Amino acid sequence: xxxxxxxxxxxxxxxHRNLVESIEIxxxxxxxxxxxxxxPWGMVLKSSNKLIGTCGFYDxxxxxxxxxxxxxxxxxxxxxxxxxxATRSVIDLGFNHxxxxxxxxxxxxxxxxxxxxxxxxxxxxxxxxxxHVSLKNQYHDMKLYxxxxxxxxxxxxx
Length: 158
Description:
Layout: H1 5-8, H2 19-34, E1 41-44, E2 51-61, E3 66-73, H3 82-97, E4 102-108, H4 112-120, E5 124-135, E6 138-148, H5 149-152
Parallel strand pairs: 3-4
Antiparallel strand pairs: 1-2, 2-3, 4-6, 5-6
């Protein structure tokens, strides 16, 4: 999935050029685990144990009890609820085991699917961060969503 330009269009990284590049990135992620740093977790299909994407904390501020979530998933699995399920699990982990008070997520304005994931996870749209990031030689406005601990504890999901 990481080599698909349609997936990479919505994230901070460029499409992986080959298997060697993907293996190098996986090894960097494993090193982050070994050093007890935040790193994405794999989204794996229960039925086949196939890796279909990643989801996890992108940034974490212990001082402010705040973190940001990021995710990416294979285009084949867009719109099937997997990212929402994974994101809900990460949010739950942050609030119930990480002492977080606030969890944020951002997406480019055209990324309707990502915004929908955040909304289905109970996150509140806070506004547009104008020219907030420079990705692939272009500035992008970003939609900002968040959820607070007390909001999460009152949500009921089907």
